[in-house]
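Recall that a protein's primary structure is simply its ordered list of amino acids. Everything else, from secondary elements to tertiary packing, is in principle encoded there. The following example makes that idea concrete.
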Amino acid sequence: MSEHPPTPDASVHTEVHRVAAPGQTRVASYLAERDEVRKVLLLYSGGLDTSVMLKWIQDEYDAEVVALTVELGQPGEDYDEVTGKARTLGAVEAIVHDAREEFATDYLIPAIKANVNYGDGYPAFTSLGRPLIAKLACDYARKHGCDTIAHGCTGKGNDQVRIEATIATLAPGLKVIAPVRSWAMGRDEEIAYAREHGIPVKNAPAGQPAPYSIDDNLWGRSSEGRWIEDLTHAPEDDVFQLVTRPEDAPDEAEIVRITFEEGVPVALNDERMDIVPLLEEAARLGCKHGVGILDHIEDRIVGLKVRDIYEVPAAAIILPAHKELERLVGTIHQNQFKPGLDQKWAYLVYAGLWWEPLRTDIQAYIEHVNTRVTGTIGMKLYKGSARVVTRESENAVYDAQLATFAESGGLFAQDASPGFIELWSLQSRLAWRLANGQHDTGTGTDGTH
């Protein structure tokens, strides 16, 4: 697994210390001034924001644009259409990089081992994709002689933090522009700009409301915009383009067996698969049964509290299965300790600090714990729910004889319990008596006269 960033390029010492032009204030050393921008690597999705951006950068900066599209498992995407659109809009090069395997192996598997969960529900799928996308942007910008990287993040979101922090870490010699933060266009204005300049706008016929803002990958899908920002508005059915509405899911439940080896999911229903097809199949099953819908209020790093609609079918099946297996093979003390580290790991990833050394320090412990997380968990999928129903592991810290009060072969003697109970409760009993004015605790071994 790749945990360490590449060596920064040689231009770090000359670029980081450049000063802003007279009369201008550079609020961050990596932000580009107008006269520094000649060739731009644009992170291009083919959607409204980045399509408008591709045209806008050429006009505003008189710069060449290289369009980079990163495939992370976005369902139903036509990449020939995306690259064709980029070239039509003036990109000097249009590149698609298939990063599904790297994303699954180097980002999603560590997240599974960490039982990733931010804010009591969000499995961090966008958060996990951004550092990889930004890392690839740095690689391609160097390769194609670009001086600047452009992204389509807004000034109120977390993605700007994740992408820019990665660029500043891995390639401090490159500059950054973020047109959406500066051009002061709302979504309706962007659509008008697109129509004025002949830029195709998907799902937005004339006179219709602007479409949802969508982000998706192997691990899930998010929707923002329109009624979602109104907390009193219940979800409308048209937002769910991935997961079946639970009301419409099959009337018969389905049990799915997930097998893990050292924390890594390796088989579904006893059929071994590589990680990418396994996650795709888990997502398909979750979608079928209406599993993975999340209506979530989220505390963003930039200080806002926002509402997102998430569809996370693969995560909704894999994560609880892994967590249950991990709990089965761990001791009570391990199971009480690790969730705190998992929470910190998820926070660092959500906060855009994938390259923070503390994350890799925590990951080292997580990897060690997961050397024992081998076994199979059965998940019952039914009309929006996914719950654990069976557990199997040779490493289970579990004794069936003890659980049924049978003879245990010397591991546990039931007649030893009273002595344990007396010692275990000693301090609590003494404290209670003192708090209730019973200062005479007695002289007997049971605390009584």
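Residues 239-330+372-392 form a domain with the Argininosuccinate synthetase, chain A, domain 2 fold (CATH 3.90.1260.10). Confidence is low (pLDDT under 50) at residues 1-24.
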